[in-house]
Amino acid sequence: MEKICVTSQGNTLDSNVDPRFGRCQCFIIVDTDTLEFEAVENPNISSGGGAGIISGQLVSSKGVKVVITGNVGPNAFQTLQAAGITVITGVSGIVKEAVEKYKKGELSSTQGPSVDKKFGMS
User: Fold this and answer.
1) Residue pLDDT, tens place only, 4-22
2) Which ranges of the chain does DSSP label H, i.e. alpha helix?
3) Residue 122 gets which letter from DSSP?
4) Which top CATH class is 3-103?
């Protein structure tokens, strides 16, 4: 069993992948073997600063090994990397499809942040 986290714009496997990590609507924590999942509403969606770090700590506390998202900033990337979590960026579409692509080995990890630290702030 492997637990992965996909950033999502909703709380189901049929929701769209959220392009933001720190301020995504929801984290979908998925068991890649059974596709059982837990939807965790992101409490950091409107926080002023530090959302990436706090979100990184949140998903780390859920025991995930991989985060799949559209983009990740430098603070979140560093937090996830320090927790030993693989980060995959540039993903869009439906959460369930992202999980399937991951299981088939079609997604590759990123080596650094994909956006600067102010990305996703309105």
Assistant:
1) 999 999 999 999 999 999 9
2) 51-61, 74-82, 95-103
3) -
4) alpha beta
Pull the structure tokens for residue 88.
Answer: 């995959």
5 contact partners, CB below 8 Å, separation of at least 6: 27, 28, 29, 30, 59, 62, 64, 66, 67, 68
DSSP summary character for residue 79: H
The residues, any chain, with a CB within 8 Å of residue 31's CB and separated by 6 or more, are 1, 2, 3, 37
Residue linked to tokens 């998202």: 69
CB of 65 closer than 8 Å to CB of 31:
no
Q: Taking Cα atoms as reference points, which of 61, 12, 36, 33 lies closest to residue 25? A: 12
Whose tokens are 């950091």? That residue is: 44
pTM, whole model, 2 decimals? 0.93
d(Cα 46, Cα 63) in Å, to the nearest integer? Answer: 24
